[in-house]
Design a protein that fits this description.
This protein has one domain: HUPs (Rossmann fold, 3-Layer(aba) Sandwich), CATH 3.40.50. It is of the alpha/beta class. Helices cover about 25% and strands about 25% of the residues.
């Protein structure tokens, strides 16, 4: 079985500046890590390969430094990895990101199952996985909390819905997004890190993709228009109130009313 896992490098801190012009995160010089939800996707892929055999390929989109998460996936047991990197991919929203990933997956070509984490910690949209499947024209199931069975031509999974649990059988090739409760991710292996230190990361730019139209990528291919984005103001200002219960209640009520909280 050929499995592709979509992973992403995200900021390792919440103290990230936002470009006031483009509305995108300033990632240069910011400590990064693998998106936590993608660790569950990798673990799901590794367990399927342990049971059924096959090959696992990781893919990500980002600047050249995102090669680090591909290498980290090697340390966990992934066989091959691709990095989609090009300045023309910069500033992409979820639609342009999904389209770029789908083009990269088409370049890889051979796959039975695509696994994504439910969402990323820097975007939290949970839209990229399903949109990738739409661009590829394959079925998908989101919020997978359990893999029940893997058959020759399909996979049976449990979906965790808001108020219910559903069992779905989905034919290959297909895409699933997995929730954080599906498995406990294994730790990267130091021994495997040494063994894979010279393993190649495959780079893909827009010239390598089937669709070379720059208008479909990055800011040009992003239908989402951000009017204004800014970090919340942090204030340490505080007010100390003294008095009896009745007095404090009235003072607190007046303050909340003045600030239009009530």
């Amino acid at each position: 079985m050929n499995i592709i896992v979509c992973i992403k490098q995200v900021p390792g801190t919440t103290s990230v500046e936002v470009d006031p012009v483009t509305g995108v995160l300033k990632r240069d010089g910011v400590e990064s890590k693998m998106n936590p939800y993608d660790l569950f996707a990798l673990e799901a892929a590794l367990r399927i390969r342990d049971e059924k055999g096959g090959k696992i390929t990781s893919i990500t989109m980002g600047p050249p430094q995102a090669e680090e998460v591909i290498c980290e996936s090697y340390y966990m047991g992934v066989d091959d990895g691709y990095l989609l990197t090009d300045r023309k991919f910069g500033g992409a929203d979820v639609v342009a990101t999904s389209y770029t990933l789908s083009q990269g997956i088409k370049k890889i070509n051979q796959y039975d199952l695509i696994i994504c984490g439910k969402q990323t910690t820097d975007g939290d949209t949970a839209q990229v996985g399903p949109e990738v499947s739409e661009f590829l024209g394959i079925p998908h199931v989101a919020n997978v909390g359990k893999i029940i069975d893997i058959k020759e031509k399909s996979i049976i999974v449990q979906m965790n819905m808001e108020e219910s649990v559903e069992i779905q059988e989905i034919k290959f090739p297909c895409l699933i997004t997995v929730d954080k409760d599906i498995y406990t991710p294994r730790l990267p292996s130091y021994k495997r890190k040494i063994e894979t230190s010279n393993r190649k990361v495959n780079y893909l730019s827009i010239k390598d993709l089937e669709d070379k139209n720059e208008l479909n990528y990055g800011l040009n291919g992003s239908p989402t228009q951000v009017e204004r984005i800014f970090p919340p103001e942090v204030s340490s200002k505080k007010i100390m109130l003294e008095g009896k219960s009745e007095e404090l209640t009235e003072k607190l009520f007046n303050i909340l009313s003045e600030k239009k909280f009530i």
